[in-house]
Amino acid sequence: QAKKASRNTLRFFDQQMQDAVTARVALEDELRKAIQRKQFRLLYQIQVDRLVRPLGAEALIRWQHPERGLMSPDQFITVAEETDLILPIGQWVLDTACAQLKTWQQDACTRNLVLAVNVSAKQFRQADFVARVQATVQHHAIDPALLKLELTESMLLENIEDTISTMNALKEIGVQFSLDDFGTGYSSLQYLKRLPLDQIKIDQSFVRDITSDSSDREIVGTIIAMAQNLYLGVIAEGVETEEQRQFLVGKGCEQFQGYLFGKPVPAEQFAAELITVVDASLDQEDAKERL
Ligand code: C2E
Ligand code: MG
Ligand code: MG
Ligand code: MG
Q1: 202 CA to middle of ligand 2, Å?
Q2: Ligand 1 atom at minimal distance to the Cα of residue 181
Q3: Could you tell me if 239 and 258 are in contact, meaning their C-beta atoms sit under 8 angstroms apart?
Q4: Which residues contact 154 (CB under 8 A, 6 or more apart)?
Q5: Where does the EAL domain start and stop, copy by copy (predicted)?
Q6: Hey, how many other C-beta atoms are within 10 angstroms of the C-beta on 151?
């Protein structure tokens, strides 16, 4: 009896594993076709300064899947990385982002916007990554200073000497760097000061509870002070409330991103909403002048 039960259990797990493998293979296969079928979209989330003036945006990928609907990166980026499909996908992102920068460049209202693009570890480690960035920037004839590459701590510390030389080569092209999800990794300050970074991005997990959790308040204050000491810019992500914004402003944070200012939206909507944000920040400046 026991033997039979265990055999059934085994068969059950076999079936589950089989299903998981089948689903994974199907996802891989669909992911492989998604580029040619033009199923990826880039959404743009606004980044603002202390007066809520627009500074730029972060490009965030979505997969418009024919059956599963709009998929978030959490549902496919890991598989893309494991299969190296992140390489063509990452190139598509870079190319689409640069095309968008070109479009922005042609309008007085959007010409100074900086666009932040997420780069995965595999992409960054490609032997020809620097050449690819250069070729893409040149192809679209954009000002490289308007392109900001978002890198994460873990990928940079993997092989620090290679990291530094790749970053320096990219710096020569003129692009900017932001250190994404800062505080979630194990950055040693020793390494941090050797990297040619422009900005540190405070992870949203710290921002979420700054109005209630005193240790998160301390951490965020420390990160901002550290950024200032290293002459780095600092941006907070995941800012959802006015209280969070006020706290960050008080600590000296310079840039902000989060639902309080805008969700990630398609390019057309981004341009339309930009006007609203500009109006709001003008109102603020008016209010200041009146004081
Ligand atoms: P990330 O780069 O840290 O991006 C920030 C994430 O926080 C985005 O999730 C954004 O939609 C979300 N977010 C922004 N403001 C708020 C807020 O106020 N509250 C909350 N709760 N969330 C907020 P998303 O778009 O799902 O992207 C998740 C992650 O996927 C990104 O984290 C990034 O690591 C990765 N990713 C996104 N696009 C790309 C891409 O083009 N290439 C690569 N390699 N990775 C990407
Ligand atoms: Mg990011
Ligand atoms: Mg982040
Ligand atoms: Mg994050």
Answers
A1: 10
A2: 3
A3: yes
A4: 121, 185, 186
A5: 24-278
A6: 25
Instruction: Using the predicted structure, report yes or no on whether residue 2 has a pLDDT greater than 60.
Output: no
- What is the tens place of the pLDDT at every residue in 98-115? 999 999 999 999 999 999
Residue 263 alpha carbon to ligand 2 centre in Å: 14
DSSP per residue over the chain, as a string? Answer: -HHHHHHHHHHHHHHHHHHHHHHHHHHHHHHHHHTTTT-EEEEEEEEE-TT--EEEEEEEEEEEETTTEEE-GGGTHHHHHHTTTHHHHHHHHHHHHHHHHHHHHTSTTTTT-EEEEE--HHHHHSTTHHHHHHHHHHHHT--GGGEEEEEEHHHHHTTHHHHHHHHHHHHHHT-EEEEEEETSS---HHHHTTS--SEEEE-HHHHHTTTT-HHHHHHHHHHHHHHHHTT-EEEE----SHHHHHHHHHHT--EEESTTT---B-HHHHHHHHHHHHHHHHHHHHHHHH-
Quick one: tokens of 197? 């970074």
CA 126 / ligand 3 centre spacing (Å): 22
Q: Residue 195 has which token pair?
A: 């990297």
Q: Is residue 191 within 8 Å of residue 160, measured between CB atoms?
A: yes
Looking at residue 192, its amino acid is L
User: CA 164, CA 145: separation in Å to the nearest integer?
Assistant: 19
Residue showing tokens 């959802």: 240
The one-letter amino acid code at 119 reads: V
This model of the complex carries an ipTM of 0.98
Q: Which residue has the tokens 């020809």?
A: 128
